[in-house]
Specification:
This protein has helices at about 10-25, 35-45, 50-60, 110-125, 135-145, 160-170, 185-195, 210-220, 240-255, 295-300, 315-325, 330-345, 350-370, 390-400, 430-440, and strands spanning about 65, 70-75, 95, 155-160, 180, 200-205, 205, 210, 225-230, 260-265, 290-295, 305-310, 380-385, 400, 405, 415-420. It has about 450 residues and is α/β, with parallel strands linked by helices.
């Protein structure tokens, strides 16, 4: 069952720590079955309740999963082995299309906005006891959300989209709960769920977003929360269309107690209109617990660690309450910088979106000329289904291209590769397509996105 490894420990915390260290070291591989409670208790000479407590700790930490009578196993991807570790080294001669970064040439200059924020800090320093959020930033955020048809709600400022989502999940759900997520989807989110002791329920998607039947199946099976990417979905570039949003709202309306989180990190870099899920065009609501999260990483750079979210009062109050116990607040220097960028940098959004669209379209068209299936409706990435991720990656590296392996983003969906086209000039797309076609052969890609 465990090969040559022997579990050690007398207390629950010691047993859990021993198993955790063995997983980290690779001595207990993903999928390895753990001994039944009573068998391990007898072997260690401890009470079965002690082993049960150790297994509970490991489940809550995302290291193991328990399936009733089938026992407990090391998770297929434990929280100790993050997906970011699945990457291909970039040789000196190769172009790195794997990182997911925006084009730095399309980011606004931060100096003027930072100067405005610094001047405000000199004039009115933020001290303990001051409001945690900058009123100017909140006012602008509320205007943006109202313009996009969202209901009135409470606002919260956090250190990025994943920070916000983590606080929402940690305060609204309990270990063992299921969360419906896109498959393929954001690797960091897929790592976060088991780290919180939550179970991902994969939902298939196409270029228009999650498939309604797949979401309905996950919610009917007991998922207590759903996370949907509105636009620029990572890794496929999917973007909700009006028709798909309406279909998803109908599914959500049948499950009004589910927690809905919309990740709109593409705000500011895409030209597709935002399609809300929490409320329809006639004002009809789908769920009572909800949040929409918008971060600044893609529009202003990953180092500008800030997101502004809106949601129902209870959800946002829990986010802020958990924040007060930890970081306290996001620096007002950052908040005022983002507010100034929002005030002064609105016009170039269309230009940035057009630039990214041109780069996606250039690669999509070049691949289509070879009969290669690819996806990239919005955002920075193009997803190409392939049959053999490792072999295709290795062959592309030999030709000077490094893509991101689909294993970083997949649960049950077929294999694929993610190409970040943010800094790929349209003129270079044909050469990449030629090389990929040569690697794949005349048959192109045989697997599909869904």
């Amino acid at each position: 069952m465990l090969g040559d490894y022997t579990i050690k420990g007398r207390r629950a915390s010691d047993i859990a720590a021993d198993i955790e260290q063995a997983v980290t070291a690779g001595a207990l591989p993903p999928g390895a079955a753990l001994p039944p409670l009573r068998d391990l208790a007898t072997e260690l000479g401890v009470n079965p309740n002690t082993v049960a407590a150790a297994y509970r700790l490991l489940r809550d930490r995302g290291v193991i999963e328990t399936a009733g009578r089938r026992g407990s196993r090391i998770r297929p991807r434990p929280a100790l082995t993050p997906r970011e570790g699945i990457r291909v080294p970039v040789p000196e001669h190769a172009r790195d299309l794997s990182a997911g970064n925006p084009d730095t040439a399309l980011l606004p200059a931060l100096g003027p906005a930072l100067a405005v924020a610094a001047h405000a800090a000199d004039r009115d320093p933020v001290l303990y006891g001051h409001p945690t959020a900058d009123p100017g930033l909140l006012g602008l955020a509320r205007e943006f959300y109202r313009a996009d048809g969202l209901p009135e709600g409470s606002l919260a400022v956090a250190s990025g989209a994943l920070d916000t989502i983590e606080r929402i999940l940690a305060t609204q759900l309990r270990p063992g709960d299921q969360v419906a997520v896109e498959d393929p989807g954001w690797g960091s989110l897929l790592d976060l769920l088991p780290a919180l002791g939550l179970r991902p329920a994969p939902v298939r998607l196409d270029d228009e977003g999650p498939l309604p039947d797949a979401l309905a199946a996950a919610l009917t099976a007991g998922a207590r929360a759903v996370i949907v990417t509105s636009r620029a979905q990572n890794p496929t570039g999917a973007a909700l269309t009006p028709g798909r949003a309406a279909a998803l709202r109908a599914v959500l309306a049948a499950h009004p107690d589910v927690l809905l989180i919309e990740d709109d990190h593409g705000h500011g870099i895409v030209d597709q209109a935002y399609q809300p899920l929490v409320r329809g065009p006639q004002g009809e609501r789908t769920t009572a617990r909800w949040a929409v999260v918008r971060s600044c990483a893609k529009a202003y750079g990953p180092d500008l660690r800030l997101s502004v979210s809106i949601g129902d009062p209870d959800t946002m109050a829990r986010v802020l309450g958990r924040q007060r116990l930890g970081a306290g607040w996001v620096s007002h220097l950052l908040q005022r910088t983002v507010a100034e960028l929002w005030r002064t940098d609105a016009a170039p959004v269309a230009e940035v979106a057009a630039a990214y669209r041109a780069r996606r379209d250039a690669l999509l068209n070049a691949l289509a000329a070879h009969g290669i299936e690819a996806h990239g409706a919005s955002g920075l990435n193009v997803w190409v289904p392939v049959q053999d991720e490792s072999g295709t990656l290795a062959a592309l590296v030999q030709r000077g291209w490094v893509a991101a392996p689909g294993a970083r983003f997949r649960m049950q969906s077929p294999p694929g590769l993610r190409f970040t086209v943010a800094s790929l000039p349209p003129g270079e797309a044909p050469r990449l397509a030629d090389d990929l076609a040569a690697v794949l052969g005349t048959g192109g890609s045989a697997s599909r996105l869904i």
